[in-house]
Amino acid sequence: NQLVVEVQSFGFKYGVPLESSIVMDVRFLPNPFFMPELKDGSGLDDAVRDYVLDNVVTAQFIDHFFPLLDMLLPAHRQEGKSYLTISIGCTGGRHRSVAIAEATGMHLQETWPSVRIIHRDIEKGLK
User: Fold this and answer.
1) 61-91 exposure pattern, b = at least 16 Cβ within 10 A, e = fewer
2) How far, CA to CA in Å, does 8 sit from each of 5, 35, 119?
3) Which of 6, 16, 42, 94 is most exposed, with the fewest beta carbons within 10 Å of its own?
4) What pLDDT, on the 0 to 100 scale, is given for residue 2?
5) What are phi and psi of 71, to 5 degrees?
């Protein structure tokens, strides 16, 4: 059976998505929100993505998180699951979670034919 995977970013201040199979909190990563030149951007912007991903703590996290997912996805499919939602959250769902969700989705797309990336809260909090 095919496993359909959805990787979604979200903001904890708007609630954890109830459809989540796996929830990862990335609020421990450096926050671009506090950098004036990055605050108004999102994790889809090169400068924000680079700020989040080009960090030793982020690299250590990814070195653990991706192999964990690489083990969990086949196990879910083996159990007969056809749908899996991986939700990645930061405070507002605009910077860190978006950058990590994009990187996670791209990693999973190398192995899984059906991976969709969505950003639930990326537009919230904009004036």
Assistant:
1) beeebeeebeeebeebbeeeeeebbbbbbbb
2) 10, 24, 5
3) 16
4) 84
5) -85, -40
